[in-house]
Amino acid sequence: MEILLDTANIERIESLQNVLPLKGITTNPSILKKEGEIDFFKHLRKIRNIIGLEQTLHVQVTATTAEKMIKEAQAIREGIDPSVYIKIPVTYEGLKAIKALKKQGVNITATAIYTKLQGFLAIAANADYLAPYYNRMENLGINAESVMSSLQREIERTNSQSKLLGASYKTIEQINGTFDAGAQAITVSPELIEQLLLSNTIVQAVEDFQEDWKVIHGEQSIDDLFHKRHNI
């Protein structure tokens, strides 16, 4: 299982690096917009410095023609580093760009996937990651888990090296559905992770345990008891 953060917020990345077993960071123009008028390359290099080369960094092109997508991919790799995964939407022009860039050994994340056929084509084009939009599919009445399952079966059937990177989530149940479908990875917003780990039910359970401990041991901690027992 790979967990990636769908954010470009430096503080959130630094904070959650100490909490989660992160495998990388994904960004897109909408996510970068939230950070205001940043220096594009400087900001992304800073993220790379935080996560290191052992984690993946995914950066999306903005062009709509294959020729310009390829140029932007080259600029991103030169402006940040060659290990970056270039996010390219699975469109007519996008597939053209993916095919050309894979021949050059470029890391590719095929994104904006809403249908099985888009995913099948991305797998055939040897994209490293496929990013189906779970919540957006559900909003369109598409069975997102079914799409995920079909794509995973195609990866296994063809012995492809592609990985499913589920994206676009609004609920924890959608994430569960992604892993139930066999996906290897998800990219999720910091807000959703925090919502899960700081939920009232979890907090209440912890408080209940603390109260039960105090009934017997008062304000003494486990550490206090250990030091008292060993006269430390």
From TrEMBL:
Signal peptide span: none
Pfam families: TAL_FSA
GO biological-process terms attached to the record: carbohydrate metabolic process
Subcellular location: Cytoplasm
GO molecular function, one term: aldehyde-lyase activity
PROSITE patterns with a match to the protein in the record: TRANSALDOLASE_1, TRANSALDOLASE_2
Domain of life: Bacteria
GO CC aspect terms: cytoplasm
Chief localisation class: cytoplasm
UniProt keyword annotations, A-Z: Schiff base
Protein name as annotated: Fructose-bisphosphate aldolase
